[in-house]
Q: What sequence folds into this?
C-alpha cells in the first residue's frame, strides 16, 4: 500500500469533523474512522495502522485488511486522503 | 456621511439592502444616517430595529426616471444624502442614467457603466466568456416559441430556460421548455435564454471592482442549502483559487466598477467550473464577506468617496451563514406611516 497523506485543503477537527476548504464539503467520521484517520495524520503506513487497529480492537486480520482497503478507497474517492 | 440603500426586501427572494446596511453599520467611521429607500411598505428591512435610521418609499424606475429623481430630490432636501447604493438588478439601468443628475444635487454613486452592464447581461455573457477563455455553458437566445425546436440541434435535454432578468426553470422536454418560455416571456420579456444544463454543485463569489481593473476584494462561497427558488439559504466560505481567479479576470477585463456576484457550477463529472451568471451588484449574502474579513460594502463607500482603498488579500475560510425566517412583530403605526406618508 502506498504512503497516505492528508491533503492541504482539508481541515480536520478533534471531533472527527472534516471540512474540505476548497469545496465546502463536510464529513463526519465515526469512532473507528476517526482513529484510523488520526494514524494517517501521524504519517503511519498502512501496515502500522493495520497493526494498531488489531491491537486496539478484536478483529481478524483478513477482515481488517479488507475493511481498511475499502475505507481508504472511500476516503480517496472523496479527496480526503492522497496516496503517493 | 448619509448613505441611502435600496433593496430592503429581505423576503424569500431577498434583496441585498439589509446585509449592505448591516455591513455599513459595523463601521465606526460611518457616523451619519443610513436611509432605506423602499418600493413597498412591507419590505421587511423597514421593520428591523437598528437597521435604517429612516426609510422612504420611492417609485419604481419603470414608472419614469423623472418621478424617481424628483422623489429622491425631495428626500435629499430632508436627509442630505451623500451616497446612494442601489442594490437591485432591475433598478440599475435607471440609476446609471440618473447618476449625473444625482451628482448635480450632491449625491454620489459607484456604479458600473452601461457597457459593463451589457457585457454581463444574460444574453451577452456567453460571448464575453468565450472571448476571454472562461468556461461557460452553451446557450442560444430565442425570441419565439418556434425557435425552441432548435434545442435538440444545439444540445440535449435537460436545458435551463432563463428569463432575461430573473428566474430560470429546468426543462426536461419540449413541453416543459415551452411552458417555461411562456411564463418567462410574459414576466420578463425577450429574449429567453436556453442554456446547456450542467449538473453539479453551485459556488458563488462576491467581489468589488475599482473601475480600473483592480479587484478590491473577493470572497468565494459554496451554497450549503438551496431553496426551491434556487436561493442559497446557507453557505460557507471556501478557498478555491480557480473561481477567484476567474472573478479577478472578469473584473480586469471589464474594468468593473461596483460590487458583483459571480455564479459558478462545478461539473460533477469533469470537476470543471462553469460561469453561469454575473449579477451586477452585491448578493443578498454579502454580509458573509465582512464577517469573513472583507467589508466590501464599506470599501465601495470609500471608493465612491475617491479614497484610496487597499486590496484585501485574504479572508476567513469556513465561515458559515444560515439565513433565518423570523417574524417581526410591530405596531400597525409603522405600516401606516410608510403607507400614508411614504416615510418612517
A:
Amino acid at each position: 500500500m502506498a504512503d497516505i497523506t492528508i491533503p492541504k485543503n482539508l481541515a480536520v477537527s478533534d471531533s472527527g469533523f472534516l471540512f474540505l476548504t476548497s469545496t465546502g464539503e463536510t464529513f463526519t467520521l465515526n469512532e473507528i474512522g476517526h482513529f484510523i484517520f488520526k494514524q494517517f495524520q501521524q504519517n503511519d503506513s498502512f501496515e502500522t495502522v493495520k497493526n494498531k487497529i488489531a491491537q486496539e480492537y478484536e478483529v481478524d486480520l483478513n477482515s481488517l485488511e479488507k475493511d481498511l482497503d475499502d475505507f481508504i478507497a472511500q476516503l480517496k474517492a472523496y479527496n480526503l486522503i492522497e496516496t503517493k | 456621511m448619509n448613505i441611502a440603500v435600496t433593496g430592503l426586501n429581505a423576503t424569500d427572494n431577498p434583496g441585498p439592502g439589509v446585509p449592505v446596511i448591516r455591513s455599513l453599520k459595523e463601521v465606526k467611521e460611518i457616523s451619519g444616517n443610513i436611509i432605506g429607500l423602499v418600493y413597498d411598505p412591507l419590505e421587511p428591512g423597514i421593520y428591523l430595529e437598528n437597521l435604517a435610521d429612516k426609510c422612504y418609499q420611492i417609485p419604481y424606475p419603470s414608472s419614469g426616471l423623472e418621478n424617481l429623481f424628483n422623489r429622491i430630490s425631495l428626500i435629499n432636501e430632508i436627509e442630505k444624502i451623500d451616497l446612494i447604493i442601489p442594490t437591485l438588478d432591475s433598478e440599475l439601468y435607471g440609476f446609471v442614467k440618473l447618476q449625473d443628475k444625482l451628482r448635480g444635487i450632491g449625491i454620489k454613486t459607484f456604479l458600473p457603466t452601461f457597457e459593463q452592464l451589457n457585457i454581463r447581461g444574460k444574453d451577452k455573457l456567453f460571448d464575453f466568456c468565450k472571448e476571454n477563455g472562461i468556461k461557460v455553458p452553451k446557450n442560444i437566445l430565442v425570441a419565439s416559441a418556434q425557435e425552441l425546436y432548435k434545442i435538440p440541434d444545439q444540445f440535449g435535454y435537460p436545458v435551463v430556460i432563463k428569463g432575461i432578468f430573473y428566474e430560470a426553470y429546468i426543462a426536461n422536454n419540449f413541453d416543459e421548455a415551452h411552458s417555461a418560455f411562456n411564463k418567462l416571456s410574459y414576466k420578463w420579456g425577450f429574449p429567453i435564454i436556453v442554456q446547456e444544463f450542467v449538473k453539479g454543485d453551485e459556488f458563488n463569489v462576491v467581489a468589488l471592482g475599482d473601475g480600473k481593473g483592480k479587484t478590491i476584494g473577493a470572497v468565494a462561497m459554496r451554497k450549503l442549502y438551496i431553496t426551491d427558488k434556487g436561493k442559497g439559504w446557507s453557505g460557507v466560505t471556501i478557498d478555491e483559487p480557480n473561481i477567484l481567479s476567474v472573478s479577478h479576470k472578469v473584473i480586469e477585463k471589464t474594468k468593473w466598477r461596483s460590487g458583483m456576484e459571480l455564479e459558478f457550477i462545478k461539473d460533477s463529472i469533469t470537476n470543471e467550473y462553469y460561469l453561469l451568471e454575473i449579477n451586477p451588484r452585491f448578493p443578498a449574502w454579502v454580509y458573509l464577506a465582512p464577517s469573513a474579513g472583507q467589508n466590501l460594502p464599506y470599501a465601495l463607500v470609500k471608493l465612491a468617496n475617491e479614497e484610496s482603498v487597499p486590496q484585501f488579500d485574504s479572508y476567513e475560510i469556513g465561515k458559515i451563514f444560515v439565513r433565518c425566517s423570523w417574524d417581526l412583530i410591530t405596531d400597525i403605526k409603522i405600516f401606516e406611516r410608510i403607507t400614508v406618508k411614504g416615510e418612517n
Remarks:
- The first strand of chain B starts at residue 3 and ends at 6.
- The mean pLDDT of chain B is 94.
